What we know:
Number of strands of chain A: 0
Radius of gyration of chain A: 18 Å
Largest interface: A-B, 67 and 55 residues
Distance between the termini of chain A: 49 Å
Helix content of chain A: over 70%
Number of helices of chain B: 8
Order of helices and strands of chain A: HHHHHHHHHHH
Shape of chain A: elongated
Oligomer: heterodimer
Largest sheet of chain A: none
Amino acid sequence: MDEPTLIRLATNGDPTAWEPLVLAHQQAVFRLAYLLLGDPDEAEDVAQETFLRAWRALKGFDSTRPLRPWLLSIAANLSRNRYRSAGRYIAALTRAFRNEPAALNIEEKSTQNMDASQLWKAVQNLSLPDQQIVYLRFFLELSVTETAEVLQVAEGTVKSRLSRALEKLRAIIQQKFPVLIEGREA
Amino acid sequence: MSQIQFEEQMKSMASEMQYPYTPDIAGFVMPRLHTSTHARFNSKALAWSLTIILVLLSSLMFIPSARAAIIDFFQIGAVRIFPPQPTPTLTAPLEATPTTTIPETTTPQPTSDLLLLLNKIAGKTTLAGAQQIADYSILLPTYPADLGEPHYIFVQDIDGAMTILVWLDPQHPDQVRMSLHFIPSQSWVINKMGPKVIRETQVNGRKAIWAEGPYPLKIQGSSDVEFTRLINGHVLIWADGAITYRLETDASMEEAIKIAESLAPIP
Lengths: 186, 267
């Protein structure tokens, strides 16, 4: 069954139609939340909340549009709000009580992916809107059209914002993570 | 290195990113589709968070002013209502409450200049526009039958998209008949200090509060929030799932409850 049909069935209240849609998009939603929040537990909460909210708001969704950008848009909003909320302080306190690191330690897990995790650290120096556009285009590999749908802006705006974000990122890399460029040039 | 080369390099590096294993989101979500349970309250961290909150609250109970603040409020969704205090120490709970509070700047009474105020409120949009921004269903009252669609629709970011619907009085088009706020759960906690009228009631069997305005509203061109009221009436506050509703009207409480219970998705 294709996605628009599943969305129509789900909009009419059929939960069995919602399940394959959750399965199809849960990875992208979880990964975006993880990139934005840096914590797998929080990303899991945001991903769960995203699909519950989307289910409740399905009646207002145009079933002819692709679902993924809309879901990512909800996940990004929830992550942004969580990023600024008091809940993060509670989460940080919780981790302190459990004596856990602030995020899953990717570097220790993946020596082959040192560059990617260093790049992630560099991106975290950008503003939240700039981070979001870099994550969507480069990390989740969304097209310009899909990114524009997620951010609810024109495609031209995506290109100009991305270009500005990359300029800033390049400056950050040159200043704080030069090994990322030198390593590849060598 | 050219900009294009730099972009290609970033893309290539980003594609090598390793993520934690994606948890079984569907397994959690599917049994909860027909409940209003909030996902975040089912987090693995819940028990720890509650423990920490309890420890913090217990500590605060040793401070008299904080103790008063903790005990003396009703909370409906995102709105906390602090009853009037019999002593002149009204500000103590506000100072001691560990939540976001918003400075009260103005509380104008409704006048014929209200339409000017409506045109100054930030975030004006259409019903379709509001529904696109909000990640919850915008509901409209089906009672009273002559109400129709709202005349003004606003969506404001208060750490979440707050939707405000405003209906004008058909007999007095320079006055507001009713307004309805949709406040998402992740937004600020709004503290309503010492309203003169507080009555506990129910909307669709859920706890509700009948109290007094004013509203927090964002005004165009200002980063501040102003407290203002559109109607010289009362406000009915109730919550349903992740959304807190505030209905301001000059109608009676019984009439306001009928309006609240008539909310339905946009046809």
